[in-house]
Amino acid sequence: MRILVVEDDQVTQSFLKKGLTEQGYHVVVASDGQDALFQALEGDFQLIILDRMLPKLDGLTVLNTLRSAGRTLPVLILSALDSVDDRVKGLREGGDDYLVKPFAFAELLARIEILLKRSSHQQPAEHSALTVGDLSMNLITREVSRQGRPITLQPKEFQLLRYLMEHPGQVVTRTLLFEAVWHYDFDPQTNVIDVHVARLRKKVESDDLAPILETIRGVGYRLVDSSVR
Amino acid sequence: MASAIDWWTARFASFAWRFTVLFTGILLLLISAIIFVLYQLSIGEISRSKQQQLNLIAQQQQLLAEQLQYSEFLQQLSLQAEQSRDWIIAYQDSQAALGDLSRVPNHLQGCPDVSSFLVAQGDDLRVYSGCIVTLAQGTLLVAFDEEDLYFLQQRFINASLVSLLLTIILGAFSGRYLSKQLLRRIKRFNQTAAVVQGGNWSARVPSTGRGDEFDLLASNINRMLTQLEHSFQAVSGVTDAIAHDLRTPLGRLRLALESAITQTPQEPITAATLEPMLKELDDILHTFSSMLELSRLEHKQARSSFQEVDLQQIADDAIELLQPIAQDRQQSILLDASGVTTIEGDRSLVFRALFNTLENASKYGGDGATLKLSLTATGFTVADNGPGIATEFHDKVFQRLYRLESSRTTPGYGLGLPLVKAIAEFHGGDVELSNLSPGLAVTVRFRKDRSISANGRETVGTTAAFD
């Protein structure tokens, strides 16, 4: 997987390069808008991490030009501008995701992974059922069961689990979960999400069942296939 | 020459001069118009009626000449000439002249065109106006004495000139005076601006209380100054708050880092050492972005994100989000959603205000408290039966980063209620605290007056009906 990292701050750039390389990505960097546009049009990348404020050519202009040239690869915008308006503008210009500085690297990784998964199978098939290991969810009847034993969930718990099951094996951050389930644009900051996940965990890992909902400290959660472990 | 032009350009740049010149000019134009009309109505009218009479007499004589025998006509003519005082009637045929004049001047125009000529009366020369009619045997002249009219005219012109001169003088003086008056008031604006520029934000433009345009301008400028002063204070308030309150956590972080570095030889840095630091830093960043957001909300004007928001839905979501935490504290949340539950607003911000208020009540209400959320036409009220807040602190809890002595041990940043207030005010509403016994009620309004909106809706309804 080749990722183009466009960032003019050298320290941030080198941290991103180091961190992403450690995760097994092939990273190419660009420090200004012109270089970024050139690289993006010439090279074969699966994803671009694009800073908004860049020398020579503004990040949104780069994005706009890329989209006009017919490039559909996912673009994750990084920005120090965090008002809702800025966010909306960034996404409207063709960004696939928007992350505000300062961000946790784990959050960035989680979002990259989701973007890559999403673009690798462009049309997410309309499943009527989701299965992760011995956990299964029927999206039509809204029945959830593990090893055949039914689990009763509250509506939000169902949505939480659905999102986790749609991203099996991936780290999902609290912010991602909140956005996906509650659809409000803000970071509740308190431990409310943790409490909700804790309740969900109690239900899916009840009795003697193997743990499948992992907590990644300081980052978020990951739903794993218990049979694989 | 150039310096004269420069002098005038410089003069003209001043409002007082421009105003004076313009004022005098307009006044002159006005007086000239009046003089013109007066002239037309007086002297013009007299002269016109004289000419009319003149023509009438000429026509009469012409008619007589045609109908009477020539000798009869001459007889009648000399009689007429003798009788008429105001008129000169003269006749001349090939043999002799008859009437008031010894001969009829031949350079005059034929009636009805009137021209002037001089007549010697003794030593005197008098001006007459008249015209001639050419008859079969001779030439007839009819004229009137123009001297009186001419005299009147001269006096009129003199009077006009004097009055125009007076107008210029008066116009210049009153224009100067008026512009000075105007400028004196403008000077007050300039003085105030200078004082404000000098750093005194409390300076205001004085008002005469007459309620004229200048007072209106003054009150507008004063309102603007008040707003600027508030923004200014808010900005410096935030800066102060950041400086004071982020110093403590930043200091802690620095200490932790320092000790981790100095102790590295003995005990290597582990994730366990770094994690609290990361947490601390995250808290600092969160406080920071919350404060930025507060400032942004306080100064934001654009309401592009406003839409019809279902308060009931938001209340359900907020309760659902908070429910597990409330249950851990053995608290119960009651919802009273009997009122109107749709408001105009920003969905995420309204949710945030409601969730923050509810979370605050849960956090400070104590274990086992009952939280009651009531939706109203303008917003919502969250009431708890916890310890409440003493009245003297009601204002303080809305200050950024202010934390009550009793809640210093609870996690929090002192930005919850200020943010709720900022959101309410952003929507044009307010927040009110009131004590219950026991407990606290926080009322959040997203707009102040419900009747305006109700009327608005009614109007829309009527229009729709006409469509």
List the helices and strands and how they pair.
The complex is a heterodimer of chains A (229) and B (467).
Chain A: E1 2-6, H1 10-22, E2 26-30, H2 33-42, E3 47-51, H3 59-68, E4 75-79, H4 84-92, E5 97-100, H5 105-120, E6 129-132, E7 135-138, E8 143-146, E9 149-151, H6 155-166, E10 171-173, H7 174-182, H8 192-204, E11 213-216, E12 220-223
Parallel strand pairs in A: 1-2, 1-3, 3-4, 4-5
Antiparallel strand pairs in A: 6-7, 7-8, 8-9, 10-12, 11-12
Helix pairs in contact in A: 2-3, 6-7
Chain B: H1 2-13, H2 15-41, H3 43-67, H4 70-83, E1 87-93, E2 97-99, E3 115-121, E4 124-134, E5 138-145, H5 147-197, H6 213-245, H7 247-262, H8 271-299, E6 307-310, H9 311-328, E7 332-336, E8 342-345, H10 347-365, E9 370-375, E10 379-384, H11 416-426, E11 430-435, E12 440-445, H12 450-466
Parallel strand pairs in B: 7-9
Antiparallel strand pairs in B: 1-2, 1-5, 3-4, 4-5, 6-8, 9-10, 10-12, 11-12
Helix pairs in contact in B: 2-3, 2-5, 6-8, 7-8, 8-11, 9-10, 10-11
Quick description:
Chain A is α/β, with parallel strands linked by helices and 229 residues long. Chain A has eight helices and twelve strands. Chain B has helices spanning 2-13, 15-41, 43-67, 70-83, 147-197, 213-245, 247-262, 271-299, 311-328, 347-365, 416-426, 450-466, and strands at residues 87-93, 97-99, 115-121, 124-134, 138-145, 307-310, 332-336, 342-345, 370-375, 379-384, 430-435, 440-445.
Descriptive overview:
The complex is a heterodimer of chains A (229) and B (467). With 229 residues, chain A is of the alpha/beta class. Chain A folds into two domains: 2-120, Response regulator (Rossmann fold), CATH 3.40.50.2300; 129-223, Winged helix-like DNA-binding domain superfamily/Winged helix DNA-binding domain (Arc Repressor Mutant, subunit A), CATH 1.10.10. In chain A, 40% of the residues lie in helices and 22% in strands. In chain A, helix 6 crosses helix 7. The longest helix of chain A has 16 residues, at 105-120. Chain B is α+β, with helices and mostly antiparallel strands and 467 residues long. Chain B has five domains: 2-41 and 153-188, no CATH class; 43-145, Beta-Lactamase, CATH 3.30.450; 204-245; 247-296; 307-455, 2-Layer Sandwich (Heat Shock Protein 90), CATH 3.30.565.10. Chain B contains twelve helices and twelve strands. Chain B has helices at residues 2-13, 15-41, 43-67, 70-83, 147-197, 213-245, 247-262, 271-299, 311-328, 347-365, 416-426, 450-466, and strands at 87-93, 97-99, 115-121, 124-134, 138-145, 307-310, 332-336, 342-345, 370-375, 379-384, 430-435, 440-445. In chain B, the strands form three sheets. Chain B has a five-stranded antiparallel beta sheet with strand order 2-1-5-4-3. A five-stranded mixed beta sheet of chain B has the order 7-9-10-12-11, with helices on one face. The chains are: A alpha/beta (229), B alpha+beta (467). At the A-B interface, helix 8 of A face helix 8, helix 9 and helix 10 of B.
